[in-house]
Design a protein that fits this description.
CATH class of the largest domain: Alpha Beta
Low-confidence stretches: none
Number of strands: 12
Bound molecules: iron/sulfur cluster
Strand content: 15-25%
Number of domains: 2
Oligomer: single chain
Structural class: alpha/beta
Mean pLDDT: 89
Shape: globular
């Protein structure tokens, strides 16, 4: 546009640091530049069509309508400081409208694939959450003493919403680079987690990206027979090959790998299965998150009891595998991936 180079930095900062809604708000830019930006471009925002907050107010979920009518979900989870870690606000974002992978315990998987999200649509979810987080931070602050520069905003981002991030690989990586940029949202790479069902070629590619992000693998079963029952992707990428790829990833990146294990009552939560999982992961630098499932409307599974979850954890411990039982946040607002869209359609249908 014939502007000086430093204007691009100012524009970037206005978009991703100040999270401005419009060009008019960008007071660091000259008036003529703002005018030509307005004439040629627009800042796309997501249209919120439904929002819910859990009864304990720690979790809120937004359903957004994209410009072509597709619906996606974004969740914000708020964690109090626990002595080891400071207060956190984690945005859980979507990378696809729907999902082709068809995991049977997942509401999104039960809805089918619609399309990949653009880089802008992925980043815009964090921007929306950042606006909310900043407003909340400012609210909590004491007599308006604190300035906008001191607020914390979104501290973590997890790619665990609708869709498989590595099936939308290029846009996911570009979005991570935007989120991580120090002049913008400045979310540290170690505070960004990408979750995958285990697309092996993309995991190996990700190892070469030189990103210090966290990788989480949705494993959910310790063997092929059990895993294939709930995750059709296992037929393409069996457990042993997946764990092999994880070893390569860990060796290359020197990063610990997280395994997500949704506990499904009487399906994958026995002590024998815990021991099998322990043997499978033996020797890998990893951590297992055990998640008693959020039941879905049409899903066949029930939630594992906490006692069973704890005994599963004991089985892993026998093999020296560290784990955490993570109670899902936002049960009362259908915060599991795809559940709000499911509920909105239910409401619209009636
Ligand atoms: S769990 Fe993830 S990969 Fe599986 S169907 Fe749901 S969104 Fe897709």
């Amino acid at each position: 546009m014939g502007e000086k180079k430093f204007r691009s930095d100012q524009l970037w900062r206005s978009l991703y640091h100040d999270v401005s809604n419009s060009f008019e708000e960008m007071s660091t830019l000259s008036k003529p530049f703002r005018k030509s930006l307005r004439e040629k471009y627009s800042i796309s925002t997501l249209k919120e069509v439904m929002a819910l907050t859990s009864s304990d107010r720690t979790t809120s979920k937004s359903l957004y309508r994209l410009c072509d009518g597709e619906l996606i979900e974004t969740v914000m989870m708020r964690y109090e400081s626990d002595g080891h870690r400071r207060n956190r606000k984690t945005a859980c974002i979507s990378t696809q409208a729907g999902c082709a992978l068809g995991c049977t315990f997942c509401a999104t998987g039960q809805q089918g694939f619609r399309r990949n999200l653009t880089v802008g649509e992925i980043v815009a979810q964090v921007i929306e959450m950042q606006r909310v987080a900043i407003a909340e931070d400012l609210d909590q602050i004491d007599g308006g003493q604190r300035t906008k520069g001191e607020v914390q905003g979104v501290t973590n981002v997890v790619f665990m919403g609708m869709g498989e991030p590595l099936a939308n690989y290029k846009n996911t990586i570009s979005a991570i680079r935007v989120l991580n940029d120090g002049q913008g949202l400045n979310i540290g790479a170690r505070h960004i987690t990408v979750s995958t069902v285990g697309l092996i070629p993309e995991i190996l590619k990700l190892a070469d990206e030189d990103l210090q992000i966290n990788l989480a693998i949705s494993l959910h079963a310790p063997d092929n027979a059990t895993r294939s029952q709930t995750m059709p992707v296992n037929k393409r990428y069996p457990v042993e090959e997946l764990i092999n790829a994880c070893h390569k990833y860990a060796a290359k990146t020197k990063r610990r790998i997280f395994f997500e294990y949704v506990l499904l009552k009487e399906q994958n939560d026995s002590i024998e299965q815990a021991q099998k999982l322990g043997r499978l992961l033996n020797g890998l630098h990893c951590h297992v998150n055990l998640i008693p499932v959020n039941p879905t409307r049409d899903g066949p599974f029930e939630r594992t009891d906490l006692i069973v979850a704890k005994s599963f954890q004991g089985g892993l411990k026998q093999y020296g595998i560290p784990s955490t039982v993570r109670m899902e946040k936002g049960i009362d607002i259908n915060a599991g991936c795809g559940q709000l869209r499911e509920r909105a359609i239910e409401i619209l249908d009636n």
